[in-house]
Automatic annotation (TrEMBL):
Pfam families: DHDPS. This is 4-hydroxy-tetrahydrodipicolinate synthase. NCBIfam families: dapA. It is found in: Cytoplasm. Pathway: Amino-acid biosynthesis; L-lysine biosynthesis via DAP pathway; (S)-tetrahydrodipicolinate from L-aspartate: step 3/4. The keyword Kinase does not apply. InterPro entries: Aldolase_TIM, DapA, DapA-like, Schiff_base-form_aldolases_CS. Homotetramer; dimer of dimers. The active site is at residues 140, 168. Its EC number is 4.3.3.7.
Amino acid sequence: MLHVENLKGIFVPVATPFTQDGEIDLASFIHYLEELLRHPIQGIVLNGTTGEAPTVEWAEVETLFHAARTVIRRLGICMPIIVGTGTNDTRTTIRRTEAAGKWGADAVLAVTPYYSRPSADGVYRHFKAVAHTGVPLVAYEVPERTGIRVPVDTMVRILELDGVIGLKDASGGFELVNALAGRSAKPILAGSDDLFAAMLRYGASGGLLASAHVRTEAFLEVYRLAEEGRYDEAEAAFSKLLPLIRLLFRETNPAPIKWVLAQAGLFASDALRLPLTPITQELQKELSAFLASP
């Protein structure tokens, strides 16, 4: 199981490869993980936004989990697997969290309940019920996708819950991480890729970053510099990654990342499940030009 003190460094939310007819491409998934996990990242997340969680069936998540664990064991490394289990239904989230725990997941990632727009108390009670499962829980705040913003006082209460080991902050600014400073000792992972270096300066313990699929070592170097307290150098190094991040998020994630992975030969196809669609020709040209540069 993942503990509070280990929620730091670079975590990568892995993508889910599909065949052209929309089925899980397990061969590509295994090949891709074998390459990704050669980098000394801290962990991976299955069934997150980058993994196209809204369109991946729960049975498919289980298949991907066991495949990932097999790859990790074959490589002989210690690599925690976090599974995205969050939905806008508390009972479903609990069932998925319990199932992930039985599979052997090291922790789960549960998003703030979306669409229903619950009250602050409803959000707190949701996380409390999920934390009661006993599976280490990382709360995930992403107002752009959920439609609500959790008040700071409520987030403090959530982080005080036994079983909640930290927070992925994709709130799109520094207000939350800054407000939590001194009010919670639990780690916060940056979830807004373009703010990664600045959030490290504000006290984030690392990042859960889709962009770290590409030039992974450069992201690891930014983290290493910040961990040593060399924040100016970290931000200077990060500035070289910002153009890449902006391209990777120009169109809806994970479409650009899947295109890059396919171009690198790690995925057989950049196929997505509807309603997501492949990236435009214009973005393909811009990404190709950037990736061809030194």
